[in-house]
Amino acid sequence: MIADSTPRVLSIQSHVVHGYVGNKSAVFPLQVLGFEVDSINTVQFSTHTAYQHIKGNVLQNEEMEELIQGLVLNQVDYFTHFLTGYSRSPDSLKQIAEIIKKLRQKNPNLIYVCDPVMGDNGKMYVPEDILPVYRDTVVPLADIITPNQFEAELITGMKMNDLNGALKVIRALHEKGVKTVVLSSTDLGDDKNMIGLASTQGSCYKIDIPKVDATYTGTGDLFAALFLAWSHKTNNDIKLTLEKTIATLQSIVNDTYEKARAIQPAGKIPPALIELRLVQNKSIIEDPKITIHAVEIK
């Protein structure tokens, strides 16, 4: 068993050789913020799927089982946090549920942060039979979930057409046993802003998220990792956690956009130019400057 007080995360997500999604988007920020991170890569691809050519391979369920066994046998399976993102199949997701139960035998206070990656903008990009596994098995095990609007609607079977609808969806997720519900992005804002929402123990906050004229990959993975980190560092002050998370994301996204536009001033920006600039923004990750404040919803 690991004896020191450093928070320890097991992160099970996808991996790319080039670019920033999944574990590549989550591990570096967590390490910079003082977390030990052990990572299992569910897939290893050359790049993320917005590129023209995708090469690589998928971790089989028995291989995942073997890796977990190795951690248990060597008694290095004590974690303070567990983070999951993209899962490719219902079976791999069921396996995640079993891993959580196993890790909680070692540390009953383990905090599970679940980013239920299923789709965006009304479209699923995982098999549809993953949904019931998230809804009925995985989400009830989570302490913190960070779905986008579409994913939250899928899990609850409810639509959010306004703020009131969003609060009903959040309530339904709490009723599944989730302590902290975070909607990482919703279309409830206006032409200039999306809205993010976070709710825990009777407090709910909303924050404006300025829109940027580009499509990013890996921002959801980064959001979940940052929210995990700051909720721990602020002792679960969700207002401050939401503000720090959005401040970091906005700085990185804006810097990435500006550098891309300097190279390609007009037209759609290709994926290679819009990879998140994490390394270049290390100081921002460590100490984000809050410019947008969250507002409590009474």
UniProtKB/TrEMBL annotation:
One of its GO terms (biological process) is pyridoxal 5'-phosphate salvage. Residues 95-258 form the Pyridoxamine kinase/Phosphomethylpyrimidine kinase domain. One of its GO terms (molecular function) is ATP binding. It catalyses: pyridoxine + ATP = pyridoxine 5'-phosphate + ADP + H(+); pyridoxamine + ATP = pyridoxamine 5'-phosphate + ADP + H(+); pyridoxal + ATP = pyridoxal 5'-phosphate + ADP + H(+). It comes from the Eukaryota. Pathway: Cofactor metabolism; pyridoxal 5'-phosphate salvage; pyridoxine 5'-phosphate from pyridoxine: step 1/1; Cofactor metabolism; pyridoxal 5'-phosphate salvage; pyridoxal 5'-phosphate from pyridoxal: step 1/1; Cofactor metabolism; pyridoxal 5'-phosphate salvage; pyridoxamine 5'-phosphate from pyridoxamine: step 1/1. CDD domains: pyridoxal_pyridoxamine_kinase. Keywords: ATP-binding, Kinase, Nucleotide-binding, Transferase. GO terms for cellular component: cytosol. Pfam families: Phos_pyr_kin. NCBIfam families: pyridox_kin. PANTHER family: PYRIDOXAL KINASE (PTHR10534). This is Pyridoxal kinase. It comes from Parnassius apollo (Apollo butterfly). The lineage of its organism: Eukaryota, Metazoa, Ecdysozoa, Arthropoda, Hexapoda.
